[in-house]
UniProtKB/TrEMBL annotation:
<feature type="region of interest" description="Disordered">
    <location>
        <begin position="79"/>
        <end position="98"/>
    </location>
</feature>
<dbReference type="InterPro" id="IPR050966">
    <property type="entry name" value="Glutamyl_endopeptidase"/>
</dbReference>
<dbReference type="InterPro" id="IPR009003">
    <property type="entry name" value="Peptidase_S1_PA"/>
</dbReference>
<dbReference type="InterPro" id="IPR043504">
    <property type="entry name" value="Peptidase_S1_PA_chymotrypsin"/>
</dbReference>
<keyword id="KW-0732">Signal</keyword>
<feature type="compositionally biased region" description="Polar residues">
    <location>
        <begin position="80"/>
        <end position="89"/>
    </location>
</feature>
<protein>
    <recommendedName>
        <fullName>Serine protease</fullName>
    </recommendedName>
</protein>
<feature type="signal peptide">
    <location>
        <begin position="1"/>
        <end position="28"/>
    </location>
</feature>
Amino acid sequence: MKRILIPAGGAILATGLLAAGLAGSAQADTDVAKDNMATTAANAKAIAQFWAENNGAALKAAKESNVWDKTDVAKLQTKGGYSSDTKPGSTAPIGEEKKTTAKVQNVNLPKTIGKVFFVNGKGEKKWCSATSLQSKYRNLVATAGHCVYDTGSNSDVMSKWVFVPGYYQGKAPWGIYVGKTAYTHYDFDVYEDYDRDYAFVTVYNGVSIGNGTTKKVTKAEWDKFQGVKDAKDEEITASEYQKCKDLNGGETPDCWAKANTTEDLVGPDYKGAVKVLKEVSKEQFDAAPNGEKNGARANRATVTENVTESQYKSYDGPGYRKIDAKGNFTITHYFLKYWVKKTSSVKYYRTTFFIVEGYVKDAGRLGDNVGGQGFAWNQPTGKYVRVFGYPAAPHPDGNKNYTGVTPKWCYGKTTKKLVGSAAKKIEEHVALKCAMTEGADGGPWLYKYSNAKRLGYVNGVTSTFNDQDGNGRVDYISSPYFDGETNTVYKAAASNWSGKIV
């Protein structure tokens, strides 16, 4: 187990526990960093609608996380390693406990996995992989720490953070779950130590967005309503308009009149014709006939005005700008004179106001809908795990095998080979032979995974992507080692209720 300490000189050091006095409740209190995300139900509702509107357009527009670049894809090292700080432990999963345990050959994907979507410090829509996790109130998501905190811009928690289990092409089959509170290890929150690159996020009850019941309301009710609404104008007769006025004692937002004036081009001999000026570009001016011979409808006129330098520079109309020999700023306006027939009329309208009730519905608790994986810590390496995620990024050599549309999986024994990244302070990761690329980061490493129950124990989350044989392709992934301090962070998150959005 590694701890980041600040000695008297102020330098940051990575060190093991050398005294029992550093352990215990005082230490546990310093392990947990807690940060708010969506602080109110109204804020959470707006975030859910941001991602769901226009048939999930924002969800579809998001790209995979890109924390790791080609220079970060390192070769694994065998020196160093983790050290267990307590005895191995585990917390059982929830959901689908009564299913059979018959062995099958195909891999059944867990219902708990999905994508977390967020907006980073650059304003980019991004996503990572994640899973629902067992907790007291069935409201917890496990993912990578860098999928919660914007380490790239060294800013606070990601904006508009949501979890969508079972995500597929803009669809949220079990609803959208907005993050309320993020729990990480103090060393990741403060020092960006990737040996603690994990996060547990409590989420509000999910919401399903769409459909609903359309209801006709008054203008006052329409103004107060905070959800989806619409208004429709329809033309009515003068008698209908008068009845509405008489009934309401005058014009209302429901019934109103609008005067319309049209100008139809006519010849100069048309009875009642009126001559009007219309400003045009110099090209239109030059192309128009000069005078009214042979029934021509237009003749020409120009006006030149002196303006200030700022007016000259800001002008963007059709007139011609010029600086004369004396340095004066001028704009010449060109006009064509037309003969028109003016017609005035009044049209009457009625506005109908609608609201959509039930457009945002409560989808219930996350764990009730998709279950929750168990949690394990201080487990030895060399054990089989099954890793799930949504890889999408190309390999460092530019080759791309993944789309990020559907989840993929890897299976094998964990190894104590470690990732060499001094910049990210990595000394205690565990690794797995796997070719998944970015987009899979944050995805769960499931220990003792039951293919029949689709449940296991989260014993890691994908953090890094590595090139072991040096051929420019990812062949190993790694996870922080889950120890007793990880369990402390998990327990702090697992005991907190989030509430409902609607």
